[in-house]
Amino acid sequence: MTELAPAPDRLAEPPAPRRGGAAWPAGLLVGAGVGVALTWLLARVIWLPAYFGVFFFLVAGMLVGAASFRIARSERPITTGRVISGVAVIALASTAASLIWEYRYRAATIGAPPKFGDARADALQRRRPVSDVESAATAAFRTFLREQYAPGGVIGYVKWAAHDGEVRLTLPDGFSDQTVLGQRRWAWVLRTVACCALFAAGLWYQLEALRSAQPTCNVLRPGEEAEDA
Q1: How much is the pTM?
Q2: CB atoms within 10 A of CB 71
């Protein structure tokens, strides 16, 4: 009588993605917090010549993704859709924060040297604080945005940078000077979109491994053989 061979063991099914855990939302919250903090610096380096500052958004995305990964890894595997949604949430929140920081930085430095040199010389002659010139320029810039690009503030700054990016400000003492953004109009719009995309790419590079149930490794363990492609 012929004996039947035992049936081969079934391949172990990968564990189902978890739902309802707190690690993933906590990871997103930490990532958003780190992203907002980093964009304070990014809003300054973005003005480097030849758009070199755009590269740092990719690096920042990887740093933020690493922080989120360490918090959320206990909840793996996470579905691809949830990872993509998380990347989008952090990237958009960080981009919005970067625009706020950018507006505040540009408003605070709109009258920085060498702008309004005559106004500074006049302030020194009258023995007035030179810092009053920068404060007056900041106030004039905010008034300009509020009057010409309502409602002003961050929204007005975005409208102005995308539409014109050029302004002549007049101080209460009558001194005026011209300011032109180094990145403006379509260049500013494309730069902002590129920053968001690079930030999201850095996040995805760090977080996509959460889709796997087991940690991934590109180093051979002792005794393992390399597979030929």
Answers
A1: 0.82
A2: 18
Q: Is residue 143 part of a domain?
A: yes
Residue 170 lies in domain: 23-211
Cα–Cα distance between 160 and 167 in angstroms, integer?
Answer: 9
178 φ, ψ (degrees, to nearest 5): -100, 140
Euclidean distance between CA atoms 95 and 91, whole angstroms: 6
Q: What is the dihedral of CA 45, 133, 154, 182, to 10 degrees?
A: -40
Place of tokens 């106030």: 139
Burial of 89 (0-12, 13-18, 19+ CB in 10 A): middle
pLDDT digits (tens, 9 = 90+) for 20-32: 579 999 999 999 9
Check if the beta carbon of residue 36 is closer than 8 Å to that of residue 93.
Answer: yes
- 62 domain-assigned: yes
Its sign, for the CA torsion 82, 85, 90, 93, is negative
DSSP code at position 183 = S
pLDDT tens readout for residues 172-182: 888 999 999 98
The domain total for the chain is 1
Residue 216 lies in a domain: no
